[in-house]
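To: structure subgroup
Subject: Chain for Friday's discussion

All,

I'm putting the inputs and outputs inline so they're searchable in the archive.
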Amino acid sequence: MRFIHCEQCGETARIAVADDDQIVARFSGQHDSRRLRFYEPTGRAEASGPWHEPMSTRRLEVRGEDGPAMAIGVRRFLDAPLVWRIERQESEERTEVELDRPLFWAAVDRALYPSHLPGRPLDEWAGQIERFARSADPADIVLLDDDPNAGNATFACLTLTARARLEADLGAFGFDAEIQGRLAALFDQEHFPPLRVRRILMPAEQRLDGPATREPALTR
């Protein structure tokens, strides 16, 4: 897949391998060939929602002879075709790590059932886990499967060593011995605590100050 773009009128067409020659010939015939530019995806991309959702906005980082750019695909209506445009601007991928709270609370509920505890100490514990994950070294994050319901998120968890550090901090939240033992047992589960890693493509003018956060460099 690649894109062909006319600098004079701004029209952009997505070219699939199967119909490459036909689209290029037709597009070149409709535009001044001297003003045409080709862009190749770099492999970095995100969507505003699930990739299979027709109304999700697609953002693909691309590169042409004139440097990096962003190919943006949108639909105005559900049954309208996807329309692409090229925005020439550098982009940077920012990575955010967060606690997958629905999965986290489901695991905690199963571990504590039928006991009922005040929510505050559990909320504080969840917050401590999320802060730990956000500040963790990339080597402590294990990437799992991509989230099929999100265009830019991957399920993740912590390494065994990182989980051990979190487990050691359980005593600071005032849980009684039985509850603390049940919660500690959660760390024996391979994918606890459940995390999500989000990849966000930031145009140059939207970059945050300070060093960029990189995607954890780990095998899936």
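Points worth raising on Friday:
Residues 47 and 58 are 5 Å apart (CA to CA).
The chain has two domains: 2-89, 95-206.

D.
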